[in-house]
Please model this.
Amino acid sequence: MLGEHFVAPQMRASIRRFGTRLCKILFSIAVVMTAATTWAGAGNSTTVTFLPSDPVCDEHIGATSAPATEFKLPPSFCTGFDLNYNRPHYLLKALQKAIGSARIRALSLGYYRFSNREFTDFLCQDLVKDTQYVRVTLDWDESIAGVEPLRECAGARGVPFELHRVGTGTGTGIFHDKYMLLSLDDGRFLTLISAGNPTLQSPLYIDYAVLFTESGSGRIYSWHHCVATAIRQIFGRSDLAIAASAVKACGILTVKEKDLEISGFQLPFDLSTFRGSFFHKVSNAEGVLIAVQTFDDQYIFDVLSYIASIGKTVEVILDDDAYFAARAIEDRLEIPSNLLADSDFVNTFIMPSKDTSISLKYVMTNHLTAVSSFLHAKLIYMKEADNRDVVYFGSANLTRAAFRSNFENVYFIRSGEIKSPVRAFFDRYWGMARSAADMPMGQYWLKK
Model:
């Protein structure tokens, strides 16, 4: 009897512990089932908007604002003169429209450089005391002065602020991502992917962005949030192993709906998968249209040369800096520092293209003033036989660094919502660009 009285309390305690664990397990299962039901059953809605910059300043440009040259600049692009005018950033206008009367519940920014005070002021006004956090990731070597007003604003409202710096200073490649993630208090999620940074000069560039507006599960937003969290783990470290494992856990962004297909990759972690997909899509396209800031990846050039040689259309739009850098090398001169093109670009792509069926044209922008227009896009339109054309977009130029070592966020998308506007973007700038034969012959770039 003594044994029975001694064992019974132990058994009762064990049963209570088991019951507690069982309740926790059942509760966890219920939570997972609820989450799964919410994910699958909610009315997911995704809107995709292509946002081209529109650096048209005909009303401001004139004889007094354009530098004297031996040819006339087309009255289509902004100059430093236009900075005297209150011209809101094109992305800022898009965000104002998308956010409307909502307030920011959580904010994450990831950019190579951030220095546009209009952005910080706008984002600040939508921060409230219930905002969960503001997280900013910048390249290690770039100034943090541009985000200090946002830090001060967040602090004044009691919002937790985090600044992370990644890049060459941590022994890695350049942090070249460009994204803005906003969770709004009305249940929507905004994911803004751009080719440019929010800087003072960026409104003057020929550029673009893609805005995803989601309700429901926010799959695109959630994937970016996962990747951004993973990258922040390498703050102050040169070892990528921890971040690589975390990014791998996020997987590849994959969205497949009736009228929308998206694949998203975070380089350098998803590099092999991305490169395989990139070259497969380009090689199998019926035609390829490219607008890019810079280009020095030999493998990409070889692929484009090949598809051009078998009769497929390959049309490339470049900034006129690329042409004049090539002219300087041909004339055995140093490339002037005011040209945003280098010898690798010239020797890997510009010069060899002359012996291929690749068509090159140059957009005439004004790079003679301190602040100027410039083709900054990183965009590829791939025409497919079934008319389900694919668009490549994101932060990466077609360079060795972008495809080997940099942090870059890049995507493929099939979407009727952006197919026409992206094609219109190419048609517009291809129409106003000049072939090499139509470019001015003088060395005006030396007159700065």
